[in-house]
Amino acid sequence: MGGLLSAKRTTLVAAALVFAVVGLLPLGLMIGSSLWVDGGFSVRNYVEVLGNARTWVLFRNSLLLATLTTAVAGLAGVTLGILVAKTDLPLRNSLSAIFSLPLLFPPYILAVGWFEILGRGGILTRWIGLATGETKSQWLFGLPGAVLVLASAFLPIVLLLTITYLRGMNPGFQEAGRLSCGWPAVIRRITIPLIMPGILLSLVLVFLLSMGEFGAPAFLRLSVFPVASFTQSSAFYNFGAATAAAMPMIAVVFAGLLAVESVVHQKTYSFRWGGQLALERIPLGRNRPLVLLTVIALAVILVGMPLGGVLWRGSSITALSDAGQRAGGSAMRSVLYAGVSAGVLCTLGFFLAYLVHRRSLAG
Predict the structure, then answer these.
(1) How far apart are CA 359 and CA 5, in angstroms?
(2) How remote is the C-alpha of 318 from its chain's centroid?
(3) Which of 248, 286, 293, 316 is deepest in the core (most CB within 10 A)?
(4) 66: which residues sit within 8 A by CB, 6+ positions away?
(5) Which domains does the chain have, with CATH numbers?
(6) What is the pTM of this model?
(7) SS (H, E, C) the chain
(8) Separation between Cα atoms, residue 187 and residue 92, nearest integer Å
């Protein structure tokens, strides 16, 4: 028993050390270098960057973009998750897979796809006329277009986490609630509160990813907060100022974590991670065809249109051959790096989560 405990403690200490070296040490060096200017300690980088009014204009733009994206993706993702996991909606598994497709593409690619559909020279412009195409293009290049792109890109995060928590929830609470009220009240008062950790986690992830997204908003000509750090590093090669410009994101991350902790802390959630039981599904009744058509239309708009635009642009034999010759090796390396990184992160994350949850080590 003593050897087992010793091995456990050694593993957890090793995981904490790996995290400190790989994750915290580079961050500490970056912050240290931003405070070391001309051979001495100085906060000049922070004064110059954070004292610039444009920095806070960009921060406001990113904050608004992230808030709207989180609201749209959260509302659509939770609703779709409930429809897929709890109702008798036809084709629910196929539809959930379709809505998850944007996870395979960077938001920048989805922005390009939307441009092929809604841009001045896009498909819809050719069909309905230049004047309407001009209006659509102006709408796309700005905050509404950026919200549309990022919401469609990050909606799968909310959808998949909602489905996961719904399928892992103990159905006994809902069955007890059904004895005294209908399904709408059960969903509102029992189901959603029980899966709130998953919903909050997904919303925080979407918010932080939207705050840090640079490629898609830049393509859509919306100036966002990451531009401040990017400009300092790539245009002026001032990495200290770039680090200072990124510091407000630390406050955003901590605020998100505190929001989740304040809701989840000291509350009990009951889940069943064992075998899949036969669940009572919510009958949609006469509304079933209408709900199905609505979900299919949403899938066509949010997934089919941008991916169709990308395929429209790159479907020629010449384009496909050129892409294979230029990017074939990069694609294989991306798959390899993604597989290795996912394995390492899952393993390290498991031990760190165990360490935090069990409080096996001080601090």
Answers:
(1) 14
(2) 34
(3) 248
(4) 206, 207, 208, 210, 211
(5) 52-315 (1.10.3720.10)
(6) 0.82
(7) CHHHHHHHHHHHHHHHHHHHHHHHHHHHHHHHHHCEECCEECCHHHHHHHCCHHHHHHHHHHHHHHHHHHHHHHHHHHHHHHHHHHECCCCHHHHHHHHHHHHHCCHHHHHHHHHHHHCCCCHHHHHHCHHHHHHHHHHHCCHHHHHHHHHHHHHHHHHHHHHHHHHHECCHHHHHHCCCCCHHHHHHHHHHHHCHHHHHHHHHHHHHHHHHCCHHHHHCCCCCCHHHHHHHHHCCCCHHHHHHHHHHHHHHHHHHHHHHHHHHCCCCCCECCCCCCCCCCECCHHHHHHHHHHHHHHHHHHHHHHHHHHHHHHCCHHHHHHHHHHHHHHHHHHHHHHHHHHHHHHHHHHHHHHHHHHCCCCC
(8) 18
Which among 119, 109, 114 has a CA at the least distance from the CA of 148?
Answer: 114
CA distances from 358 to 66, 135, 323 (A): 33, 56, 49
Q: What size, in residues, is the chain?
A: 363
Integer Cα distance of 46 and 35 in angstroms: 8
CB 216 within 8 A of CB 110: yes
Tokens coding 41: 């300690």
Measure the CA–CA gap between 57 and 47, rounded to whole angstroms: 16
What crossing angle do the helices spanning 143-168 and 196-212 adopt, rounded to 10°? 150
